[in-house]
What we know:
Strand content: under 5%
Radius of gyration: 21 Å
Order of helices and strands: HHHHHHH
Helix content: over 70%
Structural class: mainly alpha
Amino acid sequence: MEMLSNLATSFIGLFQAGGEQFMGYVTGIIPTLIALMTAVNALIKIIGEEKVERAARVCSKNMILRYTLLPFMAMFFFTNPMAYTLGRFLDEKYKPSFYDAAVSFCHPITGLFPHANAGEYFVYMGIATGVTTLGLNIGDLAIRYFIVGIIVILIRGIVTERIYVAMSKKNAGKEA
């Protein structure tokens, strides 16, 4: 009988722990994310959506900007998953590469700008908790994560673009 009681107590304890974790989100992370999302939406309205879109068109003409600044702007201003719509300003041959770069930037941006991908903020905070436990600075982690992310998305964008162009040429030869 005692074993059954312990099992029931442990079972409900699991849900109580989940509830405590959820309340931590409700009183900590979620209000912060809502405030950040509101601020970014206000910034877009202040700047003007057409100006943000014009800047995206300018970035699309340069390979380095196309796979660094454009994915950053997309994630920062439009957030995940709307960020990928900024690819509409690109030629067809660049769209797969832009998507690859933008989707690869979903994680690295969260340390400095958690509103950009709120769903990933919980993952980042898990890592940040470990770093903080070691007595290290979470700000340094966020900056390094961001810088490495920019480098990685540039490399991924260029490589994916070259692969896409090569495959397109190969497929064009088969159709002729």
